[in-house]
Amino acid sequence: MTLLETIQSKIAATGKWLSAKATEWKLREKGVCVWEKAQSCWTAVGQKLRLRERFKSSKAYAKLQAMTPLRRRMTIMLCGVFLLLGLIFGFNQFKNLMIRHFISSAGLPPATVSAMVVRATPWQPKLTSVGNVRAFRGVDLSTEMGGLVQTVPIKSGQDVKEGDLLIKLNDASDVAQLNSLKALADLAKVINERDRQQLAIQAISKNVFDTSRADARSKQAQVEQQIALVAKKNLKAPFSGRVGIVMINPGQYVNPGDKLLTLQTLDPIFVDFNLPQSNAEQVAVGQEITVTTDAFKDASFTGTITAVSPKVDTNTRNIQVEAQLANPDKKILPGMFANVNIKVGDEVNLLTLPQTAVTYNPYGSTVFIAKPTGKMDKQGNPMLEAQQVFVTTGFTRGDQVAILKGLEEGMTVVTSGQLKLKNGTPLIINNSVVPANSPDPQPQE
User: What is the DSSP code string of 200-215?
Assistant: First the structure.
């Protein structure tokens, strides 16, 4: 069966059903009865008011009769048109009036929001900043002299002690020159000792002895100079630490001042960060800090402030602070990004709300509270309406903000959906989806 045939069969079935129901309900008889009653009522009203006789006796009827047939028909047509237009205009005005009356009597439509009862929670005041990790001691090593690399006794990432040999340059010619100078120094020393003995018996003059003594000292100074020169061919660790990536190989020629490798002391380690000048009185040397890094999300490191800069940066109006951390596992590396938290004062109890509950405006911060109207809905629950109040916000932590003024504990505050509210808006609270309200949110993978 095609779709058209199906529709035709449905229409035929519906027609038969309506015909059967019309016969069952006696709609024809009832309609005839109503029509007869309407005719009798209209006849009675006409007989009582006698509208036809009054109209025929009026001046308007006399003027119509005095007109030509064409003009009379035009006049009646125009009157009918104006009457129809007036009825249409009046109907539209009546419709608008009824719509306005219905809207005004219906009131504001209810808005669905999420809400929570504001409570006081423990709050640790603290300062937060972003810092950079810096090695306790760190340097990029190079040699004072150029030469051919002879040996590299270290490996990348190796821990070395102060004085350990890192890179040795070819110093064979320098050592040979040193041995020659040592021989000359020994000879000059022997000659000077012999001249001392001869001066004691007056065999030579004092001038000869002074000359030999100066020559011996000069030869010894040349030896010490050559020893220092040989030492410059051996790069040693100036302090204990960890060596970086070694990219120098034996046989490679290096120039004076070339960066050869880096050496960093990782335990302890420094963190440098800045604070606004308004917080200068809240930080002091010896104050405890807590540091977290993105590299170790579940770990925190404790340290102390070791120095506060004695001047404020004139460009940023910030003050620089240095803190020292213990790093026995050597997890924190120089150059890392760090989040710094500084505890300020004792723990206090403050009213806490999600930051999404507060609307920040140029004229002040506001929240909406759910205020009971004293009425009950169909289910017997108290009806609530929105009321906007100004608040004074304080510290923030994670998703939360502290409220210092404007609210009292136990009030019901709208946490989301407040952009569609105004004073007096009826509220429907639905907490199936609520905004984040964690003091320490963690990023989601």
Answer: HTTSS-HHHHHHHHHH
